Amino acid sequence: MNDVWIKMAEFLGRLNGENVGREGYVPTPEYEKALEAWTEKELECEDFLETLSAEQREKAEEILECQDDLASAQELRAYIQGYVDCVQVLYHIGLLKENEGLNLEKITVL
Question: What phi and psi, each to the nearest 5 degrees, are found at residue 60?
Fold first, then answer.
């Protein structure tokens, strides 16, 4: 494992979660559509959860939280993968040179 890639993942993770109102932020139509759909369903979900027993509601909220955590982790992974892919493209077209200890052919971030 190369420490450079770990530091890069940490940096990109912070950047990804920061200001979504910045000039360079790209709101995709798919994201906007999904956000709109969730906004409509969120109130419906809350109403449904109110009909459940306390135990059932707790379990459902646990499941929703787990799903939200997974979606967040998938988003971060895709974001970091995009940067890694960009670095690899720059390397393969000759704009970046490999440094000692930094293997741009195979990148692994754990």
Answer: -65, -40
Say what angle helices 54-92 and 3-16 make with each other, to 10 degrees.
120
Q: Is 70 exceeded by the pLDDT of residue 42?
A: yes
* pLDDT, the chain, mean: 81
CB 102 within 8 A of CB 4: yes
Which tokens belong to 21? Answer: 């109102």
Nearest residue to 88 via CA among 78, 98, 100: 98
CA distance 9 to 110: 9
How sure is the predictor about 3, in pLDDT bands with cuts at 50, 70 and 90? confident
What percentage of the chain reaches a pLDDT higher than 70? 74
Q: b/e per residue, 7-26, with b = 16+ CB within 10 A?
A: ebbeebeeebeeeeeeeeee
Q: How far apart are CA 8 and CA 14, in angstroms?
A: 10
Q: Are 9 and 78 in contact (CB under 8 A)?
A: no
